[in-house]
UniProtKB/TrEMBL annotation:
Gene Ontology biological process terms in this record: polyketide metabolic process; proteolysis
Record protein name field: Steroid delta-isomerase-like uncharacterized protein
Gene3D superfamilies (alphabetical): 3.10.450.50
Keyword Nucleus: no
UniProt superkingdom: Bacteria
Transmembrane segments: none
Origin species: Nocardioides ginsengisegetis
Any one Gene Ontology molecular-function term assigned to this protein's record: glutamic-type endopeptidase activity
Amino acid sequence: MTDNADLARSIYEAWNQRDFDLMADSVAPDGTLTVVGTGDTFTGQEGSRQYNQMWADAFPDGTITIDRLISSGDQVVVEFTGRGTHTGTLVTSMGEIPATGRSVTLHLCDIAEFKDGKVRTQRTYFDTGSLMSQLGLGVGQAAASTQQ
């Protein structure tokens, strides 16, 4: 039997391979992914595809690197770094951010709970201010770009 740490690693490796089917299959049908800063919640396998495709569309050359993984029972914490060039539209609940052509390095942390080999819940944390700054968007600029 594969342990939860190995399952988590395989999910992040799948993102780098753009294997969104494997990622979706790793989520329980009623599993949730919540972006803590915005409260956006993605549910089930389709939610997993939507969330991961959103990032891949905005950063087609994007890669993630696991910096630290801590596993205890059903809980897995993954600190990771995402890097990529913003050459596609980033679709968010606050609006669309057109491609800026800028490179981004973003530090993220996910806390996942597994049950029966599937992700039941995942909370993802990242600094949206850092993301906006690296994209060259201040608060006013980000709001204006979403209204175009």
